[in-house]
Amino acid sequence: MFKINENYQKLPGSYLFSTIAKKVTAYTQANPDKDLIRLGIGDVTQPLAPAVIEAMHKAVDEMGKAETFHGYAPDLGYEFLRNAIAEHDYKCRGCDISPDEIFVSDGAKSDSANIQEIFGPDNRIAVCDPVYPVYVDSNVMSGRTGVYDAKSETWSDVIYMPCTMENGFVPEFPKEAPDMIYLCLPNNPTGTTIPNAQLQGWVDYANKVGAVIIYDGAYEAYISEADVAHSIYECEGAKSCAIELKSYSKNAGFTGVRLGYTVVPKELKCNDVSLHGMWARRHGTKFNGAPYIVQRAGEATYSPEGKAQLKEQVAYYMKNAATIKNGLQDAGYTAFGGVNAPYIWLKTPDHMSSWDFFDYLLEKANVVGTPGSGFGPSGEGYFRLTAFGSFENTLAALERIKKL
Ligand code: MLT
């Protein structure tokens, strides 16, 4: 008789955003007349930028002619895209990352889930609490997290770094040295970030204790403050301890297009073993490349027109973020984030639990958000709203919330 991967049986419930989607579907089926405003999952609503559309059309036409047709993409991704990434995301910021350290993928969600495969089962992971659930769930699936305690909603072998109002939602170095540290900055879900010097502190710490940092920079385009790093490689010594994940979902609206990349520097080694070589082996074996059309779309985000158009798109969403944050504060809520990230993290009123507030908002305001406790135990009593809706819907949602 075949055996299953028992680790999957340990996972409590379904994936956070699947649970929310199920709840929302049940509500809309029971209340078909209600007009819901969805500020839950961080899914974009604005159309793709004209420069991106133009590049995609051109690539589609190329695929229709034998002389310009493209089959399987090269293992690491097309050079035209990796060169553009190396130039615009790294060289321009003074980071020495070469195109062959960049692995193009179908997005940061898959990479953030898959990257743990190249690490041993005994590594101790450290995560912020609250945290993007993919990091923990993917480690559960591979048996790295120990035993789940339903009461505390924690795993015995995971090191949690609480990020709460008391510490400004900034993780502190754990008491016990971890092997793998997941950092998402600007942070999902709290919307907060840390200044350069503090990020440098994490790099120094990782190099000192021999840990690897898995750095999720999916929200980098939303940084508005000067003293915040756009890449972990802006820090000295990061190439020997950090892997960086990037996404085109949030900066270019590619949630439905799918494109991202991971940087594994060649200097990053465990004794003599190159993690770059391992990820190349994994990538080559398990992934057949993002589509040519999509990689051309990615390249277009770096053209002068593309950059200008995406800047406008980010500004559009950040106007929503300010609208939500100011509106909530006017209505007496305590709200965080929204300055360097498209997420607003609010304290639930009257000590309501995160899920109670979810139901309350859904039923009384017909607004969908994300319960903070879904991101980890320290998220209990908090709630996340996304700035990725349309401006009109964002305004309408705030009007509804203010009337509660
Ligand atoms: C979120 O809402 O946290 C993200 O959009 C989900 C994701 O990127 O997978």
Give your account of this protein's structure.
The protein has 404 residues and is of the alpha/beta class. It folds into 2 domains: 12-47 and 305-402, Aspartate Aminotransferase, domain 1, CATH 3.90.1150; 53-303, Aspartate Aminotransferase, domain 2 (3-Layer(aba) Sandwich), CATH 3.40.640.10. The mean pLDDT is 97. The strands form 5 sheets. A 7-stranded mixed β-sheet has the order 2-10-9-8-7-3-6, sandwiched between helices. A hairpin with a 2-residue loop joins strand 11 and strand 12 (273-274). It contains 12 helices and 17 strands. Residues 17, 41-42, 109, 132, 188 line the site of D-malate.
Short structural summary:
By secondary structure, this protein is of the alpha/beta class. 36% of the residues lie in helices and 15% in strands.
